[in-house]
Amino acid sequence: MPDWIDHIAGGDVRALARAATTIENQAPEAASLLRELAPRAGHAIVAGITGPPGAGKSTLVDALARAIRRRGKTVGILAVDPTSRVSGGAILGDRIRMQDHHSDPGVFIRSLATRGASGGLARATADLALLLDAAGKDYVLIETVGVGQDEVEIASVAAITVLVLVPGMGDDVQAIKAGIMEIADIFVINKADHPGADRVEHEIQALLTLGTRPDGWAPPIIKTVATEAAGVDRVLEAVDDYAARRHNAKSQVPRPKSGFSIDHLGVAVKSIEAALGFYEDQLGMQVSMRETVPHEKVHVAMLPAGGPRIELLEPVDPDSVIGRFLAKRGEGLHHVALRVPDLAAAVERLRAAGARLLNDPQTGAGGHRYVFVHPASTGGVLLELIQDQ
Ligand SMILES: Nc1nc2c(ncn2[C@@H]2O[C@H](COP(=O)(O)OP(=O)(O)O)[C@@H](O)[C@H]2O)c(=O)[nH]1
Ligand SMILES: [Mg+2]
């Protein structure tokens, strides 16, 4: 196993292909493989490219891959088609089109089609994205057909969602699944060589004026002709911009500059997919972000709820903080995260009063300083204190 991991991380294409098959087939060694890979992931820019069939997603992904390679970066591509339940024909088409990348070790391509439940496909997509990330790919592009809830789920595996629309859809834009519209970080109007691109643009603009996003990001609308790679560099730049912004500002919600505020409620669950069956499907909330935090061995899904968020936490490994919590206490509220105006002062006061701090203030992945306070000191709930910025 350690050899295999080294080969994967070292960019060995055959080791990577074998690992992808192992994960896709949920072979017995898949779980331990993912466990070993998780700490190496977290560097790739993971973007979902979604939209209706025939919009030009594959063509765009192909052009993006070329643009990425021209910049000397590497890319993994996952073509996920939940609609090809029977024929798998669309996927085959993608394979053929992308064949000329095959001699390039800097491009890795996998197609996935539905085998069982949609949750299973989303899980497999997430796991393969983690693999490609851990294998050192600079970008992971996930192509999915965007027509229903399954696809929203798959798209939400990605940190960035690019929604591809085409002219002639003007009237349909309103009708497009609201869920998909809402998760779009970047709008692409492909086939801009066809008449009607301006009209779709206006429709999207009109929708965007209906509200502002809590993170302040104004989704750009970019016209492309993917077959000629026109506008594709702008799409890649927008992806980079959004990735950089997310990286710099993990805390996306504007908050009062003084006083305390709830940042999130951490809920430990056995399966994020299963929990989203409630929060998304039944309740109608929308995941804003999903990621895996390798050093904490946890999958995270964020559900915005006004300013604060509900943070679903699924262990990557039973031998982890959340894994152990589940074993001991079962599913439920794991912690409350509170933003404080002055973390250093709060820590000083708490220490002086004899409160049990679980760590010295440290800096998290998003650059924020935080400390955990033991439930014994807080009235029974694990409390995370985060320095408000
Ligand atoms: N005219 C025109 N055709 C395009 C453009 N992009 C893709 N196509 C064509 O549209 C068809 C569907 O493209 P494809 O990438 O397979 O769409 P997907 O189903 O969204 O992956 C193919 O015949 C492409 O050559 C474009 O910008 N302009
Ligand atoms: Mg396609």
Concise structural overview:
With 389 residues, this protein is an alpha/beta fold. It contains 15 helices and 15 strands.
Give structural notes.
The chain is built from 15 helices and 15 strands. The chain has two domains: 41-248, P-loop containing nucleotide triphosphate hydrolases (Rossmann fold, 3-Layer(aba) Sandwich), CATH 3.40.50.300; 261-387, 2,3-Dihydroxybiphenyl 1,2-Dioxygenase, domain 1, CATH 3.10.180. The protein is an alpha/beta fold. Strand 13 (362-363) and strand 14 form a beta hairpin. It binds guanosine-5'-diphosphate (GDP) and magnesium ion. Magnesium ion binds next to helix 4 and helix 5.
Throw out a few tags for this protein.
binds guanosine-5'-diphosphate; 389 residues; single chain; Rossmann fold; 2 domains; 7-stranded parallel beta sheet; alpha/beta; binds magnesium ion; 2,3-Dihydroxybiphenyl 1,2-Dioxygenase, domain 1; globular
Reported CATH architecture of the largest domain = 3-Layer(aba) Sandwich
What is the rounded Rg? 21 Å
CATH fold topology of the largest domain:
Rossmann fold
Question: What is the terminal separation in angstroms?
Answer: 42 Å
**Helical percentage:** 25-40%
- In CATH's first tier, which class of the largest domain applies? Alpha Beta
Any idea how many domains?
Answer: 2
Number of helices: 15
